[in-house]
Amino acid sequence: MKIRRSDRLIDMTNFLLDHPRELVALPFFVKRYGSAKSSISEDLVIIKRAFKAQGLGVVRTLPGAAGGVEYLPGISEPLARDFLELMAEKMADSNRLLPGGYLYLSDLLGTPNYLKIIGRLIAAQYSEEKVDAVMTVATKGIPIAQSTANYLGVPFVVARRDPKITEGATVSVNYVSGSSDRVQKMELSKRSLSDGANVVIVDDFMKGGGTIHGMHDLIKEFNAHLVGITVFAETAFSGKRAVQDYTSLLEVTEINTQTDQILVQPGNYLEKLQLITTAENAD
């Protein structure tokens, strides 16, 4: 049965959003909607224009017998800036301060609307990269990894500090916590990553970077490759960080436990986003 264009546009948009970075042959849509290939091509031009205008990412069409259409998740700089400023304002609330100078983040990372945008922000960095998995460490990094993996259309894997019998055989590494100088252990199921996999590391909070460095060492044990590192928030650190090349959505510049003052600003994400956009325009 032939479907009206308005209904077709809605369904096609939803399909592309649900299948990011997946190359879909045009005959699939022709058969799905009972429409001519020329009509599907016209629909894609409309969707492509709308996605670009709304800062949702790129709809790319590839010609030829092996071609088709794919959706690459993205976000415009104004939308990213507005969201990061909102998150910075919410994180600066003095009620978030916990004993020991820690910050309460569970409400932000547990809000679906916030989490979806966080995942989209991170995925936008790597939409053009070959990524096979998103990796994090239990526990607060899990929702970020899941959201990011959803937008990249890949699995997410979780390194754990305590063994789980349901994980089967594991690979483990010892690492030094950058903030406490304590030697700790993390492990990952042998079935989690394939040999030569390309991995993005994400985490909720970074101080000394020891945990992220440990995840990087764990990736090497699988003969896998690190594509990039992104954290939700980083905080000021007086020593030398264990990792240098990373992206942060937010930067906590000061935590004053005496005055309960928390100073937060957008991290280096916007700078990295500009570099990516400039490179894409140059291509």
TrEMBL record:
Keywords: DNA-binding, Transcription, Transcription regulation. GO terms for biological process: negative regulation of DNA-templated transcription; negative regulation of purine nucleobase metabolic process. Residues 108-258 form the Phosphoribosyltransferase domain. One of its GO terms (molecular function) is DNA binding. Gene3D superfamilies: 3.40.50.2020, Winged helix-like DNA-binding domain superfamily/Winged helix DNA-binding domain. CDD domains: PRTases_typeI. Residues 4-73 form the Bacterial purine repressor N-terminal domain. Homodimer. Belongs to the purine/pyrimidine phosphoribosyltransferase family. PurR subfamily. This is Pur operon repressor. It comes from Lapidilactobacillus dextrinicus DSM 20335.
